């Protein structure tokens, strides 16, 4: 069953934001974090499809500027009442009889409904506020410690300028129900064998969203060097912090960040996947036990977001600066030990695919990360990868809605709202059907689905099959467990 909070957010944005400027809040627990004047951080993406989440840094603009007059309260730009209710029912029957008096019959019915009514308002920081603040207030010196950390990681900083906020408490109700029945009659030598079965499953979810909760927000990028400013018109080429000349990558419009090939839709996606698979094949040169250790530790990192981000930042820094990295603790340190020489220098051909994998995993939703951690334990990754790729292939070129049939062989032991594969796809904003197994493809699902597929690509190369003609060596013997071909 989809998230009740996400359904409310989606409904509100659909009514109030035709241009797509508002950014939805991903969960109810984060609905108090994105206040006007709050500062957020976000990593630069190495893939068109990695939509990194904005993260609160527990700062507002007043925390990084010299003291001055209090910030004006945001203006209310309008209040709207939204009522959203839907009720649907689908039924089907089947019967088969023969001249020999045997009979098989079945029926199925599915229904669903949701309802919510809410009063929301849009709060906006007046544009003149930014002009006055920029003229009268300067950055604190020395620079705030959190800004220093974000600068070292190369992350951009944003400021919340507009929010969509509930004015009153909102009650949301979701109901899903399924019924099924079956009958059969089989003639025997002396009598007729008959049977009948019925089943019913109903789920009801109720969520209360408190008054004052933030459903969506809009941001503007903050510039720090050489003096502070705010970009009210988006510009992806500008960075919050001025980078050293040695770290700058050429910013060419419509060029893939990592591969340097002109972007042309799904054809370039295929090139990206081929690049990742070619790079990931180097992982086959690790000893089998080291590959299994990598899988286990990556599974642990999926439940430990701070350590996963620390490892990704360490690998990215090492790849940019020539390979030297500092040791890390926990599962992040365990992964890093498999990728470095005794001197602490990264083996680049191994670090590249792991760095890419971590970037893709970080771009997933928290629900997807937890499900992938479970899939690593149950060895379901290969089937899930094949299913995701098949959906992407059958829905090409992705710009038009379509229905994609799903093969039963790739769905595992179950295919319903509780099945892990179902939830993985549902998190990509796809609409799913139980019988027959189908996916309703929507153009807006392109990004989340491609991000999901990219998070799978490197992992099959860490499975336990021993590669042919390869001998793995431990880190303390000849480096990071890199195998040598005989």
TrEMBL record:
GO cellular component annotations of the record: NLRP3 inflammasome complex; plasma membrane
Membrane-crossing segments per the record: none
Pfam families: Gasdermin, Gasdermin_C
Residue ranges of domain Gasdermin pore forming in the record: 4-242
Ranges where the Gasdermin PUB domain occurs: 274-439
GO biological process: defense response to bacterium; programmed cell death; pyroptotic inflammatory response
Molecular function as annotated in GO: phosphatidylinositol-4,5-bisphosphate binding; phosphatidylinositol-4-phosphate binding; phosphatidylserine binding
Keywords, sorted A to Z: Cell membrane, Cytoplasm, Lipoprotein, Membrane, Necrosis, Palmitate, Transmembrane, Transmembrane beta strand
InterPro entries named in the record: Gasdermin, Gasdermin_pore, Gasdermin_PUB
Coiled coil: none
Region (Disordered): 467-486
Localization terms from the record: Cell membrane; Cytoplasm, Cytosol
Membrane topology: Multi-pass membrane protein
Family: Belongs to the gasdermin family.
Listed name of the protein: Gasdermin-D
